[in-house]
Design goal:
about 350 residues; alpha/beta; Rossmann fold; 2 domains; 12 strands; NAD; D-isomer_2-hydroxyacid_DH; Hydroxyacid dehydrogenase; oxidoreductase
């Protein structure tokens, strides 16, 4: 038997209708009391503070303020923080877990569009689509059918990081005939083999992966030990005409070293994230013909955003009926995840 919970929505006001469109809001209202939609962006506001006092579950999203100690003090009934987005690292303080509050994230849902973007980028990169599109504009059409370094057949793709997204990317690429490599110090060979249906993925050291891959796609978390993971030395290991795809975090790659490699024409890059972000006007990565920069669009956007809300509402329903939450985040995971 389910209980009626009291929920507060904390995210940017302009996001509420996308994350929780009317059918989802109606479904949420059947499980939780929402006196009015509080798209809270400041927990210190008097009305928000008053509502916190009776809140059982916070439904959070982009733009939510940090759930820190004084917020927890103001919400003595709080049982769960359900994040209708990805990482919770910047959202909650460690004491959330100390106080027994459950933390759930829709990160697994958000990983799907990132993986779809990545696979599309890998396939187009193998065709040299981005470089050749610029060449077509500047020099006109020519026949590329016999160009030896164009095409995806027999190519090797290296995946850096067996994260949620990295695992999806490997599974999606398995049917395209690529040789697949993965580098992640947290998994075993048996675990790596289980990531793709036919087991045909090789777990290798990062340097080996870089030297052997035609396309490298980055899916590692940004941690103190991974900042600048792909530095000048490691980027130099990439074969000539390799393509580097990054949909994880810009700071995983040494930006100056990447500019140097791409400006020389030795490698190409597809970047949905950069360091800094956004890049300043006129930055070399925005003007190089062999680099495609997109404005952090790989994750859920537009019609995809409601899937995050759907996951969040389902988590509230599970909480109300005593079922385990599917997106639970453990405190110890923060040290190794994005």
């Amino acid at each position: 038997m389910s209980e009626k919970l009291t929920a507060m929505i904390a995210m940017r006001p302009d996001l509420v209708a996308s994350v929780l469109p009317e059918p989802l809001m109606a479904r949420l209202s059947a499980t939780a009391r929402i006196e009015r939609v509080l798209a809270a962006t400041d927990f210190a506001e008097p009305e928000v503070l008053h509502t916190l006092a009776g809140t059982d579950v916070l439904i959070t999203g982009w733009g939510c303020p940090v759930v820190e100690d004084w917020v927890l003090d103001a919400a003595p009934k709080l049982r769960a923080v359900v994040h209708a987005a990805g990482s919770v690292k910047e959202l909650v303080s460690p004491t959330v877990w100390d106080r027994g509050v459950l933390v759930s994230s829709a990160a697994a849902v958000n990983a799907l569009p990132v993986a779809q973007y990545t696979v599309s980028a890998v396939l187009l990169a193998g065709k040299r689509a981005f470089r050749l599109a610029n060449e077509y504009v500047s020099t006109g059409f020519r026949d590329y059918s016999v160009q030896p370094d164009t095409g995806n057949h027999g190519r090797t793709v290296g995946v850096v990081g067996a994260s949620r997204t990295g695992r999806l990317v490997l599974a999606m690429l398995a049917g395209h005939g690529f040789r697949l490599l993965v580098s992640d110090p947290t998994i075993t060979e048996a675990q790596a083999a289980a990531l793709v249906p036919d087991g045909r993925v090789e777990l290798v050291e990062l340097d080996d992966l870089l030297m052997r891959s035609d396309v490298v796609t980055v899916h590692a978390p940004l941690l103190p030990g991974t900042r600048g993971l792909l530095d000048a030395r490691r980027l130099a290991l990439l074969p000539d005409r390799a393509v580097l795809v990054n949909t994880a975090r810009g700071a995983l790659i040494d930006a100056e070293a990447l500019v140097a490699e791409c400006a020389s024409g030795r490698i190409d890059a597809v970047l949905d994230v950069t360091d800094p972000e956004p890049l300043p006007h006129g930055h070399p990565l925005l003007t190089l013909p062999n680099v495609l920069v997109t404005p952090h669009v790989a994750g859920a956007m537009g019609s995809e955003v409601s899937r995050l809300g759907e996951f969040a509402v389902a988590e509230v329903e599970r909480l109300a009926t005593g079922l385990p939450l599917l997106g639970l985040v453990a405190a110890e995971e923060l040290a190794t995840t994005a």
